[in-house]
TrEMBL record, chains A, B:
Pathway: Amino-acid biosynthesis; L-tryptophan biosynthesis; L-tryptophan from chorismate: step 5/5. Residues 78-415 form the Tryptophan synthase beta chain-like PALP domain. This is Tryptophan synthase beta chain. The keyword Membrane does not apply. The gene is trpB. It comes from Spirosoma utsteinense. Belongs to the TrpB family. It catalyses: (1S,2R)-1-C-(indol-3-yl)glycerol 3-phosphate + L-serine = D-glyceraldehyde 3-phosphate + L-tryptophan + H2O. It holds the Pfam family PALP.
């Protein structure tokens, strides 16, 4: 009865540097292109949107970037985060696999997103920015940025997908509590929003539309910048504090993962826990399997194509090299709103293309079945996004049992489900429906693209 | 920039014993009385409701009770909980006071309540109990017991005050996720419920009615017991893990509190953080001020009387020595549902009577103003119950500033407000109303009592 359940670290063990995997990639990520000329864009094109330090980080090839003291101070509010051994789940599955999870839901915003929201707000503050605009779907990112801007005294304006704004009012109230202003998107505050509303006054909105609105506003005003919660290189890099802490924790547990699993939306969750371990594969020839777990209803990594595509709906962003389903692809309204983005970031896409990482897709019912098993054995009620990782872990643990081998599995429990109880209720009352996407739908969406292919 | 924000402990530092303050009280708590005969009741009267080990703890005068290994293993899911120095709040208040908070919201149920739910479920399991009934108001206790019963595979039946059942559906869904069954109270499943419904089919319910229902069911069936989330001696004792950890953490910080503040409902929150420190007052002559912070709308400690009263509405519980507003007192529907109980437990009441602790009352608007200040400086959004402690801490910190003295203040941040965002929204939109209770209302409620006075 003296098993170690929780592996904790002290504040002194918060990482001092972020890890930039670009330095160690055999094939570097392809550059963003200008949407009109299709020529690679320079840092100056991004200057209206982001502070210079974030642009520098976006294009950096240094393997390590120092975390500012002020950011580490604020990380202390919830970091280092705990790692747990899932004894309860292991027992239920009767598996020889050892299962560990890193729990990012202890942040005030309830997910891993503040790991990048804090440094983004910090660099904006350093460069005199007064207001930051952003979009949010399910609300995790909008909450995280509101929290960070609240601490720095920066005005925060969040464009929240109308369907979520109406359906998840508590997330909006959370952002208000931290002092942010939240608008339903499409709104009448931007050309992008007005254009959509003129065609469809009842538009439920989408992440792509909300991005267009937030970007448009940032470009109009010198004191306003834009912040993105995933996809971009600097965002992924900020999240590597998760994996760097995890390495220290696994060492303390006297163990090391054979398999790492993380939910996959735009890539920051997966990169956060995975890249510091992947570094050992790239630089030391280790063979840790890194699995990105996405939804079957938005299967960009498993059924998308690798080509240039827009980051938003209205074409206000550069073209990015992505595994994509097409920027007009509208995924079914699954509860894991954070995984409904049409494309994957440039780094993750290149790694997948090069066979250095794996991807799996999981349907919604399997996810919630896994989430309930987890809640009743480990206690924590996971976010719907996290359930994609848990379902994938259960698959791998069952495989280990069938094969009679012990595997060590680590996954990122990226957030709690306190704002998603309605989804659990639907599942428990048998009302949760599955959303399958047909090959015809994917092909139709991809056929609309006229952006450059990648050899 | 190397200030320690968070003081953490390792699993090995989870306390091995609970502290029973009864051993050190100069005047012991008065015994419960039979509601009919007004004679002190023996342990056998409680046997239909509680497992024998909990009854033994209820009447124990030993200063220390060993925490079973199995309970300590499950405490590891969230314990030890972190302690934080509130640098952000201190800076906002510009106070010479040093403010610390112990954060109990990291438990899966989001509050301190699992500290007693886990051992209560454990002892029931040990004695072969198959089903536990309980009541819940705002839902914190029902969630905690559902979580604990889920881990032990015990059936859990929660009677949730109708007004909360309708108004806080997410709390109900949380309990269902852990496998519990939740009924709105009054229900048609008990004589107590049917009796109320026959007089008023639209009754919004109350904690007193829900207790009557849960107790009635437990008394009918040998395999069913009842569990209470506050008030009773054993419940308060289980919560002392909070204060025992806090002492170790304060020692690590090289500091010790002059003032301790906790929200006050039935007493378990306050006892949990306060009693281990109060022990130093009782046994070593220390002078730490322990302040219970309750709502002005349910001011049992500041405006109630000390006498015997019933624990429930229908008279199914023994008579308990309480500071009470009368068991028929219906407090205004403030958002801090956990603080709406009419009476205080026997131990806390005796300590207040003997001048060994203090009490303050705070109104709802002052509480939410304090909660918003806290969220925007420290990040965490507090539960409405916790805001009563924060408002009181701000009063004491401001007093320290006026007096030009440095004080060390520690408070119990007993839970997060993720299920209370509607309350913050009401406050921010100016719709939150104050509920003052008149002296006439209190006197009218107390005049109905025909229970024994206490000299």
């Amino acid at each position: 009865m003296t098993n170690q359940k929780k592996i904790t670290l002290t504040e002194a063990e918060i990482p001092e540097k972020w890890y930039n995997i670009v330095a160690d990639m055999p094939n570097k990520p392809l550059p963003p292109l200008h949407p009109g000329t299709h020529e690679p864009i320079g840092p100056e094109m991004l200057a209206p949107l982001f502070p210079m330090e974030l642009i520098r980080q976006e294009v950096s090839t240094d393997p390590w970037v120092t975390i500012p003291d002020e950011v580490r101070e604020l990380y202390k509010i919830w970091r280092p985060t705990p790692m747990f051994r899932a004894y309860g789940l292991e027992k239920l599955l009767d598996t020889p696999a050892k299962i560990y999870y890193k729990y990012e839901g202890v942040s005030p915003a309830g997910s891993h997103k503040p790991n990048t929201a804090i440094p983004q707000a910090y660099y904006n503050k350093q460069e005199g920015v007064k207001r930051i605009t952003t979009e949010t779907g399910a609300g995790q990112w909008g909450s995280a940025l509101s929290f960070a801007c609240g601490l720095f005294g920066i005005e925060c304006e969040v464009y929240m997908v109308r369907a979520s704004y109406d359906g998840k009012p508590y997330r909006k109230m959370m952002m208000n509590t931290w002092g942010a202003t939240v608008y339903p998107s499409p709104s009448d505050r931007t050309n992008a929003g007005r254009s959509i509303l003129s065609q469809n006054p009842d538009s439920p909105g989408s992440l792509g539309i909300a991005i267009s609105e937030a970007v448009e506003l940032a470009m109009q005003d010198d004191h306003t910048k834009y912040a993105l919660g995933s996809v971009l290189n600097h965002v992924l890099m900020h999240q590597t504090v998760i994996g760097l802490e995890s390495i220290t924790q696994m060492e303390k547990a006297g163990d090391m993962p054979d398999i790492i699993v993380a939910p996959f939306g735009g890539g920051s969750n997966f990169a956060g826990i995975g890249f510091p371990f992947l570094r050992h594969n790239l630089t030391e020839g280790k063979k840790i399997r890194c699995i990105a777990a996405g939804p079957t209803s938005c299967p960009k990594l498993t059924r998308g194509v690798f080509r240039y595509d827009l980051g938003d709906t209205m074409g206000m962003t550069p073209l990015l090299p992505m595994y994509t389903l097409g920027h007009n692809f509208i995924p079914a309204p699954i509860h894991a709103g954070g995984l409904r983005y049409h494309g994957a970031g440039a780094i993750v896409s290149q790694l997948l293309k090069d066979g250095l990482i794996e991807a799996q897709s999981v349907n919604q019912l399997e996810c919630f079945e896994a989430g309930i098993k987890f809640a009743r054995t480990e206690g924590i009620i996971p976010a719907p996004e996290a359930n994609h990782a848990i379902a994938t872990v259960i698959r791998e643990a069952n495989r280990a049992k069938e094969e009679g081998v012990s595997k060590t599995i680590l996954f990122n429990l990226c957030g709690h489900g306190h704002f998603d109880m309605g989804a659990y209720d639907q599942y428990l009352s048998g009302k949760l429906v599955e959303h399958e996407v047909t090959q015809a739908e994917i092909l139709e969406s991809l056929a609309e693209l006229d952006t450059p292919l990648i050899a």
